[in-house]
Design brief:
Strand content: 5-15%
Distance between the termini: 21 Å
Number of helices: 9
Strand order of the largest sheet: 1-2-5-3-4
Largest sheet: 5 strands, mixed
């Protein structure tokens, strides 16, 4: 059913209990749009079939970069899996995750181990995270995501501006950071994103790796997190 719009002999599919793989050779003209349509179709069909109406069982589609040779299609598959993992950890990324659009997460998600990720986090941020005050962490992360725009952050979090400044000041004192210092902002922002991915690695079941290959595109994987 998935990929029914694909031309004959241009699609390969593999289904497992908790994820699946589609490998496409798109048309020469409009190939990227075609890939996106198939990805959206896959997400829609699987969401309906699995009844993934809540965050614990949502369907995610990861889309890797195009490959020119059959022998390198596995690279696109790997990218698609990593993209899906990022989207699973960072719901704001959405349910269709293109490897090309991940920005800094392209680097973060490829750290060789959970231990390496943990050791890369600024110890000042670790002190803040250890307190378990999610409101402080959420506020600080939103503030950094919005490039220090207090008005936009208060609107996003539905906070009074005074409450926002109180939380930021409390986070600053507890962590011992200077939010006016660009290096501190970079280190803490980097660490917050890395902490999210590391937290996911700590709790997620390692998926089975399935090799697949075809020319040009690997259109990701879907994941049922409730499986």
């Amino acid at each position: 059913e998935i990929g029914w719009q694909a031309p004959a002999r241009s699609l390969l599919g593999l289904a497992q209990a908790d994820h699946g793989v589609l490998v496409l050779q798109p048309p020469a003209v409009g190939g990227e749009a075609f890939v996106e349509r198939v990805a959206e179709e896959s997400w829609s069909i699987l969401s309906r079939r699995l009844g993934s109406s809540d965050a614990s069982s949502r369907v995610i589609v990861g889309i890797g970069d195009p490959q020119e040779e059959l022998s390198t299609a596995i690279a696109s598959y790997r990218q698609a899996r990593l993209a899906a993992g990022v989207a699973e950890s960072i719901p704001a990324m959405g349910c269709l995750a293109w490897w090309r659009d991940l920005g800094i997460f392209r680097a973060l998600v490829q750290l060789p181990s959970r231990e390496a990720a943990d050791e890369s986090i600024d110890p000042r941020l670790l002190r803040l995270l250890a307190l378990g005050d999610e409101s402080l962490v959420e506020t600080l992360e939103a503030y950094l995501d919005l490039a220090g725009d207090a008005k936009a952050t208060a609107e996003l979090l539905n906070l009074h501006r005074g409450t926002l400044y109180y939380r930021l000041e409390k986070a600053r004192k507890l962590a011992g950071i200077d939010l006016r210092n660009g290096y501190d902002r970079l280190s803490i922002h980097f660490g917050l994103k890395l902490a999210r991915l590391s937290r996911h690695r700590r709790t997620a079941r390692e998926p089975e790796i399935v090799s697949a290959g075809a020319r040009h595109w690997l259109v990701g994987e879907w994941q049922d997190e409730g499986s």
